């Protein structure tokens, strides 16, 4: 699997929000959803605040492919389940980056429902993802 460049990591991690468009079964992209993104080490993570009930999340889990964009970065990605071992670090990254939303939007992102719907974004440079 490909790695993010440092520039991509910095720009995506610094973005307030990320647009994510999971691929449909036919290879086309779903309409993009605006979500939060955090960085832990050399990896980027996203969560569904609705947990596994989020429609974009269900599509992402089904095809494991999508497209993200933020701050001028456009990238096809693989959408992988984040392991439990990174859950606390991802929680900390959300707390640090989005602390100004404490008392409202942040707390649901730290609850078990959202935590169970955490995905790691991995650049897809293989060229195997279908293009719409």
UniProtKB/TrEMBL annotation:
InterPro entries given in the database record: UCP028498
Source superkingdom: Bacteria
Organism: Nonomuraea pusilla
Descriptive protein name: DUF2255 family protein
